Amino acid sequence: MTETANVVREEKEADHHPYFRPKDAATLILVDRSAAIPKVLVGKRHAKVVFMPGKFVFPGGRVDKSDNRVPVAAPIPQALEANLLKGSPKITPSRARALAIAAIREACEETGLCLGRKSDVAMPKLEGPWAPFSEAGLLPDPSSLFLIARAITPPGRVRRFDTRFFTADASAITHRVEDVIHPDAELVELMWVEIGSEPLADLHPMTRNVLNELGKRLATGPLKHDAAVPFFHFYGGRMHKDVLDENAVP
Fold first, then answer.
1. CATH 1.10.10.60 holds for 6-243
2. Cα–Cα distances in Å, from 23 out to 17, 161, 162, 163?
């Protein structure tokens, strides 16, 4: 049952592109809570990329086929899976797992910061984007992830994503890949910035909405899986914020 239907400003309908079905995507917001004011990790995109050039972003991207097959050090928490299974269209537990794993892969690929740990079973050799985990003797570990929000890009956009925004504490970072950030990379700079600071004012409006939700969650103490998860989606010509539940329909 929908709890709220508040209109979220700064998102408008576009009519210059045909309807595209949104692609599943995942974003990971890493948080450092070692100081009084939490800091989040953002990366500055290269000035010549097509999508959001020069903007500060959180690492993320589309779900890849390998995300559903790669072995992991631990299963995703049952409460996290339950949150991912809420809403519509319905997804399978394996798809929920893939979303969480995609967030870890994208963070490692784009920032060089990897969430993983050693496994008690024989370590398989991982290839492609997962090679840094194998080289460090690790498997990806989604056990520290929390779901903060879900957002679907409005219709009429040339790129549409059904994105799940995850967060994890910086203490979950167990490996760093060198030389991922450089002048010719997708992200040319990484910064840990306080929530509410100037670099975050230039975020995409929807990303700012999600960051505000994260700030509210952090202000209440340790993150919990039973907190309400906001769902930003488009209907009736406007973007709305609802509470994600078993019956939410985009």
1. no
2. 16, 5, 6, 8
